[in-house]
Amino acid sequence: MRKTLAALTTCLVMTLSLVLGWSVAPAVAIDTYVSRYLQAREPVEIEMDSQGTLQEFTPERLSAGKKLFELHCLNCHVGGATLPDPTISLSLEDLHGATPPRDNVGSLMAFLREPMTYDGTDVTYWCRQVPETWMSQAELEELAAFVLRAAQKAPGWGTNQFD
Fold it and tell me: Which of 1, 16, 17, 131 has its CA 20 to 30 A from that of 38?
């Protein structure tokens, strides 16, 4: 009986969405890593700029950022390390120490749009440039928010110690 009721409800919602033009987007699953290690079971605030402006990111958005990280960054940044240059990681300390600092969503996004060396003196080819034709602003924001939250909370992120 419950299965029949659930099927009828699903059918009704889908029919209404077609007739009324509703958007029915599938729910994004919350990644276990995000809820457990990033401690994001509810929306969390992450710095957007150097003035300390905060924005809430839902666990779903952080999970989307994790997927983007896995697809595009994981080959060089396993656990927040930087394989091409192991002396510089994605730890908060190293992100803050860059010129300019890359320790908020906006500055990390600016870096990804136009990657520069750690000291900011030249273009770097170690990190790929991410144009808007490849990743939208919203996607890049999710990716940057994931990296920053991981740097804040994930055990061993950006270190050689994974405890």
Answer: 131
